[in-house]
Amino acid sequence: MVNESKRLAIWFFFIPVAVAVFDTAYYIQFNVTSFLTADYALFLILAVLIGLFPIKTDDSILFLVNGISLPVLVIFGLVPEMIVSSIAIIFLMIRSDIKLDQHYRYPLNLLMFYFLSIISAGFYYLTILLFDSVANVIVAILALTVYMFAHLFFNQLAMYIIEKYFYENSEAKVFDENLIFSFYSTLYVIPLSFILIYLYEMTGTMGIIIGAFPFITVTIGSNFYYKSKVHNKYLKKMNQFSQELNAKKNRESVIDMFIHALVQIFPSDALSYFTVENDYLIRREKMILGTRDIIDTDDLFHLSEQSILKRAMTSDTMLAHGYAKDWKIYCTNDLSYHAESALVMPIKVMDRTQGIILMTHNTRSMYDDMLVSLVEVFHKYFSIALDNAYHYEQLEETAEKDFLTELPNLKGLSKHLQEIKEGKTIVQMSLIVLDLDHFKIVNDTHGHQSGNEILTSLAKRLRDNLNETIYVARFGGEEFIILLPNYSQEAAFAIAEEIRQLIAATPFEISDSMQSNQKEEISVTASLGLATCKDDWIDIEELIHLADRAMYIGSKQKGRNRVTVAQKGS
């Protein structure tokens, strides 16, 4: 944003500088003819029409007013040409919805075009003076060409200086895509300007009317061309990101990539991602300002019925607004950044709205029908990728979970151990291997169904009574592994004893024993092996091996229903 001192400085210097520039223009122009005529008014109307149909690019607005200002310079002089350019610029900025807080852009752009007019006219007059001995037609075409390319080059240089030093944009470039487009459009405009001058000299007022049609045609055609070019660029980027989205296997990464892709592909000054708490409460969890990285947030928003976020949720449709007054007043919480245009899209997973994305831009009416339609297409790709990630997560969760006890199985345990290794936050690790005693007798006596009931009850008993930081997995059969990260050997032994008593002291209820076909209570005990290691030699596989040996040799072979502690080398 431009600070207040710069805004005021532009207005402060505008009037004296403008007067000085017009005074200079009056004295350097070749021909001084009366320009308050109907013909001049037609040129002025043509320039205004060109200004009302600008060519919008991603980061600037182009228009072909130099094609009209040049004939005015040749026919009426430099001062009339500057007036035409000024009025066309004013209509261009009005058409571009320059906001009140950007009022400084009026004097800034007018001053830039005043200097462009003088510099370009200087090159035009200099060319005529240097080649006055050459045939008139050749000199005229040469002078027109020099004027156009001088205007093109110094316009690009002026925009670079303003972007670099006034707006303090470190990424500003002299040679960019806009310069290339302006170069080719200039090649079209030069002959059109020459034809307009020739028609006016030959037929007068009718020549202006006839010559106006090619300018309007080129302006409209350039608009269509650039929109098509931008459209193709959007589609190319969308295709690239869509492939990357489909490669993601979890919802979090899909959402992160999608919101980052939105601000990279489409014009956006800010983006907020909300999760839905209930029908009237949402939580902003992520935010992007400009095209920078994702910022994690935790802001609650209470929604009114008129809120566009609420309407997007209930209608399940994408909503777009071009003016802040149409939507921002109903967002009761401050968004903490300025916004004019807004685009809201609901996020659904398996036909349920779980989130909302609000993408905004400081420019009014930024999200036109073309942009909205493209975002809708990209949003469909995202929805498919999100559903696929959800199914993949469900499949992974099922594959990593024991069907009977709903505890992690060997695959889930392996994944958790890998996360522990990569996390590097464990300074010591204690591990318990638990095996139920004489469980084969239970299965043989009461049936495997009863055995399964005991295993299920044991898993629930462990989950309900152990701390959340303690990880329990089914190792296979009636054997379980319990991980105690950052537990000392003494603390882990106390937990192991608690587990042993938790099993031995309370019988397990079975509902359908093979012996009696009635509910029974069965007492079961367990043997446990415990191993602990420090961070200088944490090796989970070796720890499991030590705890397993301690359980079999130290607990099973010495009477069962006990805890045995293993040491490295035991």
UniProtKB/TrEMBL annotation:
Tell me the PANTHER family matching this sequence.
DIGUANYLATE CYCLASE DGCM-RELATED (PTHR45138:SF9), REGULATORY COMPONENTS OF SENSORY TRANSDUCTION SYSTEM (PTHR45138)
**Cross-referenced InterPro entries:** Diguanylate_Cyclase (IPR050469), GAF-like_dom_sf (IPR029016), GGDEF_dom (IPR000160), Nucleotide_cyclase (IPR029787), Rev_trsase/Diguanyl_cyclase (IPR043128)
Protein origin, superkingdom: Bacteria
UniProt keyword Phosphoprotein, yes or no: no
Organism whose genome encodes this protein: Alkalibacterium putridalgicola
Q: Give the protein's recorded name.
A: Diguanylate cyclase (GGDEF) domain-containing protein
Question: Which positions, given as ranges, span the membrane?
Answer: 6-28, 35-55, 61-94, 106-131, 137-158, 179-200, 206-226
MF terms (GO), sorted A to Z: diguanylate cyclase activity
Where in this chain does the record put each GGDEF domain? Answer: 427-568
Q: Name one Pfam family in it.
A: GGDEF
The record's annotation in PROSITE patterns points to: GGDEF
Q: Which UniProt keywords apply?
A: Membrane, Transmembrane, Transmembrane helix
